[in-house]
């Protein structure tokens, strides 16, 4: 059945629906010589099998860089979409193949393909697998740090959910919003749920709001086990915040709120202490 080209931007200039072809098989298995022979014999590289999978998708899913190069040189559509809307770049990031990611980007793959209700961005996919090298490359190529997935939230949420501290550091150093929220749930909530002290410390260092409440009206510390290292860590930050804020109020309150905001050691936002809105109160000298 011929596919209508009503949405060429989304689906790409792909061919016909077919059973899984020999090109698909060779690409998937990394059989570069066989794939080259098929291409030279006139086999199409843009036929789509079940779920709109192209040979390029198959090669990327399995990190077959040589086959990816052959397919692209033969005219494979670099941003073709499968039935879920994923591009080959998404699949390469999911596989953690930095070489495939490089090849695709060199051939013009979009670092920010349009998202759908079923699609995560390449940056999300890289964060799921903890592929920090891919994360760095995508960011260097302009990947959107705040791309929003309906199920996962931002890439920073994904990195925290999957406990990949290296990816968290890369994202934050690149400027990702540390207090980005999905259903009022911040990355710090996920770090607390996973009992990751190292991740909690990194997030707080970058200004995570320890008072933020999610849609269950819970703070990050509420998701930790009492007496656990993660609970102790968050309690420590809460106590340091309270002590420092009380101290600065005593010292500066007579001079007004403007003086408090200008203090070099304690820069406090106008957000309420319950953390429902606004960002973290940035405290110098602790952490």
Compile the SSE list and pairings.
Layout: H1 8-11, H2 22-29, H3 32-40, H4 55-61, H5 65-73, H6 88-95, H7 98-106, H8 122-128, H9 132-140, H10 155-161, H11 165-173, H12 187-193, H13 197-205, H14 229-252, H15 257-262, E1 266-267, E2 282-283
Antiparallel strand pairs: 1-2
Helix pairs in contact: 2-3, 2-4, 3-5, 4-5, 4-6, 5-7, 6-7, 6-8, 8-9, 8-10, 9-11, 10-11, 10-12, 11-13, 12-13, 13-14
Pfam families: Ank_2
Family: Belongs to the ankyrin SOCS box (ASB) family.
Keywords: ANK repeat, Repeat
Give a brief description.
The protein has 287 residues and is mainly alpha-helical.
- Structural shape: elongated
The percentage of residues in β strands lies in: under 5%
Radius of gyration: 24 Å
Number of distinct beta strands:
2
Please identify the structural class as seen in this structure: mainly alpha
User: What is the mean pLDDT?
Assistant: 84
> Percent range for helical residues?
40-55%
Which spans have pLDDT < 50 for at least 5 consecutive residues? 1-13, 251-287
Order of helices and strands: HHHHHHHHHHHHHHHEE
Q: Under the CATH scheme, which architecture of one domain would be assigned?
A: Alpha Horseshoe
Q: Given the structure, what is the number of helices?
A: 15
Largest sheet: 2 strands, antiparallel
Any idea of the CATH class of one domain? Mainly Alpha
The CATH homologous superfamily of one domain is called Ankyrin repeat-containing domain
Strand order in space, largest sheet: 1-2
Tell me the CATH topology of one domain: Serine Threonine Protein Phosphatase 5, Tetratricopeptide repeat
Distance between the termini: 61 Å
InterPro entries: Ankyrin-SOCS_box_domain (IPR051573), Ankyrin_rpt (IPR002110), Ankyrin_rpt-contain_sf (IPR036770)
Keywords: ANK repeat, Repeat
Family: Belongs to the ankyrin SOCS box (ASB) family.
């Amino acid at each position: 059945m011929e596919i209508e080209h009503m949405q060429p931007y989304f689906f790409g200039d792909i061919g016909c629906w077919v059973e899984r072809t020999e090109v698909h098989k060779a690409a998937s298995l990394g059989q570069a010589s066989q794939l080259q022979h098929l291409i030279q014999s006139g086999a199409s590289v843009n036929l789509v099998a079940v779920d709109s999978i192209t040979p390029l998708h198959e090669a990327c899913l399995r990190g077959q860089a040589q086959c990816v190069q052959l397919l692209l040189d033969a005219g494979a559509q670099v941003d073709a979409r499968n039935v879920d809307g994923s591009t080959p770049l998404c699949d390469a990031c999911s596989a953690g193949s930095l070489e495939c990611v490089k090849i695709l980007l060199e051939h013009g793959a979009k670092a920010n393909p349009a998202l759908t209700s079923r699609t995560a961005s390449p940056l999300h996919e890289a964060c799921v697998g903890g592929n920090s090298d891919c994360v760095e490359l995508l960011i260097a190529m302009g990947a959107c740090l705040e791309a929003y997935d309906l199920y996962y939230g931002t890439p920073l949420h994904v990195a925290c959910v999957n406990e990949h501290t290296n990816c968290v550091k890369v994202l934050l150093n690149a400027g990702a919003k540390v207090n980005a929220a999905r259903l009022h749930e911040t990355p710090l909530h996920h770090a607390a749920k996973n009992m990751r002290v190292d991740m909690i410390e990194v997030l707080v260092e970058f200004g995570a709001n320890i008072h933020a409440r999610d849609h269950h009206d819970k703070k990050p510390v509420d998701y930790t086990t009492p007496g656990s290292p993660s609970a102790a860590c968050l309690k420590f930050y809460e106590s340091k915040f309270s002590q420092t804020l009380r101290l600065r109020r005593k010292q500066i309150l007579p001079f007004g709120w403007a003086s408090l905001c200008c203090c070099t050691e304690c820069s406090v936002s106008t957000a309420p202490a319950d953390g429902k809105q606004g960002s973290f109160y940035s405290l110098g000298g602790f952490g």
